[in-house]
Structure formats: structure tokens, C-alpha cells
Amino acid sequence: ADTAYFDMIRRNRPRFEALKAFGRRSSVVGVRAVYDAQVNRLYRERGTKMLDESARVLAKFGFPMTTKPSGATVLFGETARRLSETQLKEIFKGAVLVDSTAALRLTERGLGGWLGCSVRYAEDDLAFARSRVLPVAGSRVNGLNPYDYHILEPVTPVPGWDMKMDYVRITPGTSSETWVRYEDVEGRPVAPSFVVSKNPLGGTTAVMSFAVKDNFREWLYSPEMQDVWRNFFDRATGGALDVTATRTPSTWLAARVSDDGRELLVMVNNLAGEPRSDIALEFAKKWRGGRIEKLQIDGTWRPVGTASDAFRPEDGFTYAAMTPEFFKVTRN
Q: DSSP label at 286?
């Protein structure tokens, strides 16, 4: 009989016990992926899952995720059509990132004013050759994304594939900033692609002109877009996200903060498919300077450095593929 899983569980039991003990006195933190039990039942009946699109992109972009209320939220797809107005109002009081499908559904419900800008469906009349991150975004990665394109030529449908994408044209409002724009082959502006606005409920909204669901193209999963998301959440929340790994793509994070607010537990999982030593964790200012310890297989914690805006373990630790590692930060 194959006993590999049983052997693994037995070896790691002290680690599991340490994690369980921390979990009992802590709460999950991160960017909120909106989840509602009643809504999820409706989604399952339709053969789709509510969290897939949010969880996938947040994990690849290095943001820890929670389903609990948070100062930072992603609202993607049909979720915006299903949630109550009361639920949506609470979300829009903070920082919220909205994709094109969610923006369209809000507009259809008469709630488009909460976006801080206006949108209209543009699948059939929006053609561009590339996108450009503008200096106003203040990103570390600026300039062209040559993988971003959309043509209007007819596409032969593939049986079982949905070839449509919910593109929208965004009209910025009076308080809006365009962070990313589409350009034609000559570099002339075509339309905004990522617009940040102060909304009437006191929060900050970012609207993307494309949908996230079933979107695996390079211009979404790119260092440019990853950095734009990071900078939006950082600005809109005043640097409140406890930890991110947005300088190193394909780094899946999960995080918990102790009930007394003094300790932060971070799971780091390398999704790249090969060993890596380049993963850097960016801690919020309140954690910087804190002592970092790494969880050992025997359940003990070993000091490995100090929290910073680009933390790497002092011993040059290499992350194996798909092998979760755990770090604990203790504030000074």
C-alpha cells in the first residue's frame, strides 16, 4: 500500500499542531473576495463557482485573500448582480476593484454612480493594439504591455467555448484618474483601461475595462497589471494590507493576525513549478522591524530575519514548488 500521505502527515504533525494553536487565537486577513452563502448556492446551480476568478488571480498576484469584510475588496463578474444593495454599499465604503462585468451589472441595477465613472458595453467597437501604464499610477513597472490587444475581426467559434469578453468603454468622472490606457498601433490613445475614482460613498473604486472570469491572457497576468493592482490597494487603504508578494509573481499567500494584534502568520507557497529563492515579502509599515521566525517541521520557530518591504530569509532559503512554508512576525 502507498503510505506516502500518511508518512507526510505523521512527520508534519508538530507543524500542524502549531498552526492549529495559532489559528484558534487569530483571524484571516487580506483582500476580500466577496462571498455569500446564498449567492454561492445559486452559482452552483448554474454550474459555476463564485470564488474561482477572485482566488486564482489574487494568489498569482501575491495578495492574501479573505472572505471576511476588509478595507480592500475585489468585486468580479456576476457577483455584483446577486448581492443586496446593503451588502454592496458596505463594500464601496472601502477600496474596491471592479471588473467590467461587475461594472455593467451595477449600472444595470441603477448603482453605476457608485463607480465614480460611467461604463458602457463595448465588445464590438473597442479595438486596440496595446496598453500603457501611465506615470500617475506611481507604479514601479511603467510603460507598454505589448501583450494587450483586441481585434474586431470575426472569430470562428469553437464548440463549447464562450469567445465573448465583457469589454467596456469607461468615461472618467470628475474625481477620476486614468492609470492605464489602450493605444493603437501608432501609440495614440484609444480609451481608458484602468480608472481610479473617489466614489460618493467615501471609498475609492478602480474599474477595469475587461472581465476577469475565464481570462488567462498575458495582459492580465503580467508584471505591469500586478504592480498596478498592488499600488491601487496600497494607496486606497493607506498601506493597510499586512503583507503582499507583488514583486515576485506566482507567490500564493495566506495570512492571519493574532487577536491581540501583535503577531502575523504568513503562509508562502511557490506556484511557479520550480525551486525559487527570489520570493520577497512586502510587509506593511506597522510590521517592519518585527522579528520573523520560520516554522520548523518539529513545530518550533527559528529566527530568520526582520520584517521589511522586501523580506527574504537570511539563510538564502529556497522555496520548493507547491510546498507551503510558514513565517511568524512579532511586532516590537
A: G
CA–CA dist 208, 228 (Å, integer): 11
DSSP H/E element including 228: helix 223-236
The runs of H, that is alpha helices, within 24-119 are 37-45, 52-61, 79-82, 85-91, 100-108
The residue among 273, 325, 255 whose CA lies nearest residue 62 is 255
C-alpha 300 chain-centroid distance:
31
Give CA angle at 134 (107, 216), nearest 5°: 60
Half-sphere exposure of 332 (CA within 13 A, CB side): 8
Q: Does residue 262 or residue 48 have the better pLDDT?
A: 262
Task: Please report which helix (H) or strand (E) contains residue 285, including its range.
Answer: none
Show the cell assigned to 141. 513597472
Contact 329, 292 (CB under 8 A): yes
- DSSP states of 144-176: EETT--B--S--PPPTT-------EEEEE-TTE
pLDDT tens for 128-146 read 888 888 988 887 765 555 4
Query: For residue 127, what is the DSSP state?
Result: -
Amino acid at 299: G
pTM score, whole prediction? 0.88
Number of Cα atoms under 13 Å in the Cβ half of residue 285 = 5
Q: Are strands 26-29 and 251-258 parallel, antiparallel or unpaired?
A: antiparallel
Tens-place pLDDT, residues 232-277: 999 999 999 999 998 788 899 999 999 999 999 999 999 988 999 9
Pairing assessment for the beta strands 325-330 and 189-198 based on DSSP bridges: unpaired
Return the H-helix or E-strand segment holding 95. strand 95-98
Lowest-confidence pick of 76-85, 87-96, 141-150, 224-233: 141-150
Report the range of poorest mean pLDDT among 55-64, 161-170, 201-210: 161-170
